[in-house]
Design brief:
This protein is an alpha/beta fold and 458 residues long. Helices cover 34% and strands 19% of the residues. A hairpin with a 7-residue loop joins strand 12 and strand 13. It binds nicotinamide-adenine-dinucleotide. The site of nicotinamide-adenine-dinucleotide has 25 residues, from helix 2.
């Protein structure tokens, strides 16, 4: 490389770094836009690359979800994982070995503060630690000058979640919350294009969503990776069981309604264009003996939309997997079923009296209707199929040929690089946290919980 080449390379990097420093709060500096990240065309895991668009990132938390996000990051060109912080040797070893296979030689840390002091060249951090630590980790990263992608649930406490919104504002750093459906092109097509723009469901008055799982034991761990009690104490965990199963403990998480429900309850406000006015809920620790949070919850929300009142029912069950997980939106002209697993939901259904949808098929917005059940053979009852038969299904034609979290990460990296708006900025994550965390209060009080509009503002 000649001196000139070197100078040019340095200039490019400096320009990009200046841009990154000033690109906070999205939407700025479009003149300096480097190429937008789209993910590798063949969608394979990337070997380490080096380019002037490279983003240097660190992970805090490399457990189950951290690994899912690491794998998605490896599919995105120009993302260089430089450091991983995790207190558990098992997660540290797993992440460093896995990343080494793809040429990312990472520095491993136990303490996030040490990582932030020593790593001088980071642009962003991805936080996949347990919910109760998100504020501490995200706030420290933003104060250290990093943009942050933080997993849902934003926090297990609204006070802590609020501090994250404030830190993002004060530091001017980006804070994306990991409600990944908000970047999924199938969801964007279904909600923004079909339900909101094209209004195919007519007046949407109901929503229903569920996440049902079969019963399961508490998570264990390989015995040779048992942490000593002194170390658990140091990091605030009462036992290895609590450390591994933090979701079920009040100090660390919010139970299944927060863990699973937050993904889907987040969609209600997206579809209705408003936050809930009330929620009533019932739940309990009905099945398990050794958990602190409710193992099943049913909640009913009321929304005031531009079109009037809408109600949304939500249930999370951890002792039956009946029906799995999906979301349904129902209007007077039709309904739409969608799920992160397309086999569980990826279609609209039209009411017989509704305006025709064939033109939507011509525009490529829906696929042709699959035939409804026309005839029902039964031995001893008469069914009037005109009244009772299911409508035909109009499949949603958009596919996501990537892991579910990849588009949300891409949106975050593009916001960092070129200032595109975040799909789930801190303010939206906070609104969802309010709607979700208050369900546990409603269960406990056995009263209808009334939200005040100002509660949704951090
Ligand atoms: N978006 C999604 O679809 C999705 C799915 C699963 C989990 N999540 C979220 O991801 C986060 C992590 O969940 P998980 O399932 O990976 O949990 P996990 O228990 O499997 O992993 C958590 C990791 O954080 C580490 N950790 C704990 N305390 C730490 C500390 N003080 N400093 C650094 N590391 C620490 C643990 O050692 C572990 O490796 C949670 O917020 C969860 O809600 C999101």
């Amino acid at each position: 490389m000649t001196n000139n080449d070197q100078d040019n390379k340095l200039k490019k990097v400096l320009t990009r770094r200046n841009f990154l420093k000033s690109s906070a709060a999205a939407g700025l500096g479009m003149a300096l836009v480097p190429p937008v990240i789209k993910g590798s065309p063949d969608n394979v895991l990337q070997k380490e690359t080096s380019s002037s668009n490279q983003l240097n990132i660190a992970f805090i938390g490399a457990g189950a979800q951290g690994r899912v996000l690491i794998e998605s990051c490896l599919r995105i060109p120009d993302i260089r994982i430089k450091a991983v912080c995790d207190i558990w040797e098992y997660s540290q070893r797993y992440a460093s070995r896995y990343l080494k296979k793809y040429g990312h030689i990472v520095n491993i840390y136990e303490d996030y503060r040490e990582m932030l002091t020593k790593e001088k060249d980071l642009d962003a951090a991805i936080i996949a630690s347990p919910d109760w630590l998100h504020d501490k980790h995200a706030n420290a990263c933003m104060r250290a000058g990093l943009h942050v992608y933080c997993e849902k649930e934003m926090s297990n406490s609204l006070t802590k979640a609020r501090s994250m919104v404030h830190t993002a504002k004060q530091t001017g750093k980006l804070l994306q919350i990991g409600h990944q459906r908000r970047s999924n092109p199938r969801y964007i097509h279904a909600i923004d294009r079909l339900i909101r723009d094209k209004h195919i469901l007519g007046k949407v008055t109901k929503a229903y969503a569920q996440w049902n799982r079969a019963k399961s034991d508490m998570l264990g761990w390989p015995k040779k990776y048992t942490m000593e009690q002194a170390k658990l104490d140091k990091y605030g965990y009462s036992s290895m069981t609590a450390f591994r199963n933090w979701r079920w403990f009040k100090k660390y998480g919010g139970g299944p309604i927060v863990d699973l429900g937050s993904h889907q309850i987040d969609l209600y406000s997206w579809v209705f264009g408003s936050n809930p006015q009330t929620v009533m809920a019932s739940g309990g620790i009905d099945y398990y003996k050794n958990r602190q949070w409710y193992d099943n919850v049913m909640a009913i929300y009321e929304y005031q939309t531009n079109e009037g009142t809408a109600r949304a029912l939500y249930q999370v069950q951890t002792t039956t997997k009946h029906g799995g997980f999906y979301e349904t939106f129902m209007g007077d002209n039709g309904s739409l079923v969608i799920s992160e697993v397309p086999e569980k939901g990826n279609w609209a259904m039209r009411e017989a009296h509704a305006p025709e949808w064939d033109s939507l098929v011509k525009e490529g917005l829906l696929n042709t209707e699959t035939q409804p059940i026309q005839k029902v053979d039964t031995k001893n009852i008469f069914l009037d199929v005109r009244v009772t038969a299911e409508a035909g299904r109009w499949p949603i034609p958009v596919e996501l040929a990537k892991p579910a979290h990849q588009p949300h990460l891409e949106n975050f990296f593009n916001a960092v690089i070129s200032g595109v708006p975040l799909n789930c900025p801190a303010e939206i994550g906070y609104e969802t946290a309010v709607a979700v965390l208050k369900v546990n209060e409603a269960v406990q009080s056995r009263r209808i919980y009334k939200f005040r509009p100002e509660q949704f503002k951090a």
